[in-house]
């Protein structure tokens, strides 16, 4: 599981 | 996008609308903490700076603009238009004791030591405690109007739904963000006693009275 990079959440 | 995040965003949007309607209709911001509203404006400003250089989707951009406009609009209503109804004597939480630690922690615990990343991390940490002045105000006045408790319920539900979104994304999309998850859990936990009161009292038609 990779750490979330893109900020697609509000 | 998944159903949990969509419901969470809609719950968040509904909370902000309920608050604006409450202030506009009753022409009063009694029982609302201006300090929390200031913190929310700081949270959205520091988190949505990427509006300038990153385009995710029309939905993402529109929601960010709505949240920014609504938070500044609420501050305008509270501190200017309906300033006379602002409960300055009870809204006394020292928000510098929330902003400073969030800023320091963002400089220490983050994914990357870059300006936008630090600001995003700061906004995540600050959002997790931004409701404290509001909960403090409700505890000081000992009660809240039912529309204010609906506002708080929607606002608390939004991040609780985001936790389900993060669980879903962990299993379905193979990624997670520990900073957002830990802060989101802290944020939701802060609402627990309010959720209990809301479900046991407000949903039964009673007024939200905190045990004195």
In short:
With 10 residues, chain A is mostly beta strands.
State the share of residues found in helices of chain A, binned by percent: under 10%
- Using only CA atoms, what is the Rg of chain B? 17 Å
Low-confidence stretches of chain A: none
Spatial strand arrangement across the major sheet of chain B: 1-3
Radius of gyration of chain A, taken over Cα atoms and rounded to an integer in Å: 7 Å
- Major pleated sheet of chain A: none
Helix count from the secondary structure assignment of chain B: 9
Structural class, from secondary structure content of chain B?
A: mainly alpha
Spell out the helices and strands of chain B N to C: HHHHHHEHEHHE
The percent range for helix content of chain B is: over 70%
GO molecular function (chain B): ER retention sequence binding
Protein name (chain B): ER lumen protein-retaining receptor
Family (chain B): Belongs to the ERD2 family.
InterPro entries (chain B): ER_ret_rcpt
Could you explain how this protein is built, in words?
The complex is a heterodimer of chains A (10) and B (212). With 10 residues, chain A is an all-beta fold. Chain A is 0% helix and 20% strand. Chain A contains no helices and 1 strand. Chain A has one strand at residues 2-3. Chain A starts with a strand and ends in a 7-residue tail after the last strand. The mean pLDDT of chain A is 81. The radius of gyration of chain B is 17 Å and the shape is globular. In chain B, 70% of the residues lie in helices and 3% in strands. Chain B has one domain (3-86, 93-203). In chain B, strands 1-3 form a two-stranded antiparallel sheet. The mean pLDDT of chain B is 96. With 212 residues, chain B is an all-alpha fold. In chain B, α5 runs parallel beside α8 (178-190). Chain B is built from 9 helices and 3 strands; from the N terminus they run ααααααβαβααβ. Chain A binds chain B through residues 1-10, and chain B through 5, 9, 12, 50, 54, 56-57, 60, 63-64, 67, 111, 120, 162, 165, 169-170, 174-178, 180.
